[in-house]
Amino acid sequence: MTGQDPKFVKGAFAKIADRYVLTNHVLSAGTDILWRKKVGRIVREWNPRKVLDVATGTGDLALEIQKKCPDAEVLGTDFCPEMLAHAENSGVQKTQVADAMNLPFEDGEFDLVTVAFGLRNMAGWQDALKEMNRVISPGGHLLVLDFSLPKGILAKPYGFYLNKVLPRIAGVLTGQGEAYRYLAGSIGDFPSGEAMLELFRKAGFSGEEAKPLSGGIASIYCGTRGKVESGL
Fold this sequence. Notes:
- The structure is a single chain.
- The protein has 232 residues and is α/β, with parallel strands linked by helices.
- It has one domain: 3-Layer(aba) Sandwich (Rossmann fold).
- 46% of the residues lie in helices and 22% in strands.
- The protein has 9 helices and 7 strands, in the order αααβαβαββαβαααββ.
- It has helices at 6-16, 20-27, 31-46, 60-68, 81-90, 125-135, 155-174, 177-189, 194-202, and strands at residues 50-54, 73-78, 94-97, 110-116, 136-147, 205-213, 218-225.
- A 7-stranded mixed sheet has the order 3-2-1-4-5-7-6, sandwiched between helices.
- Helix 6 links the parallel strand 4 and strand 5.
């Protein structure tokens, strides 16, 4: 599998938008907040001037970057207006409805692009990464934060939680268990570790690096804009 059905994804997120943040915090026991804070510290070291947060959702990461980099211009985009409404209400400075597969921006317009828990839900992971590469200025960075599958002793219990426990809890909190069954399944299909770094390289990024979080339950991937490989 190379991506997701955008129509289904858009409908699923529209349905869970009102309780999305609360549900994420409950399901991760607040760990997702710590992951975004780590991303904020990484971004602060790069000292970006213009940041695009793709698939910003309810704006959690965009808000963290605004906090860590108060002088940066941060724009949050998403193809789901219901999610963006929450981002605006939460204090994201600039938002815009936009499809990550066809970003309405000039080449090299941003010196940092971030995407948290969004790449996994896009119609084509490789094409999405290439499109992000296009709008990053030479020497600029891409940072992806997303779920991954832990290995070793955590693999089996996490798999049980992900596929059996998480959808039931989320169903109670949101009334949309189907959406979270989809999300759980999407994590298993999503490339992680070296497989994700290979996608980065094919999309034209160099200096790519993977940083596992919480035993591999999530990962941060970073890369620097280079040239996109032709014929891929």
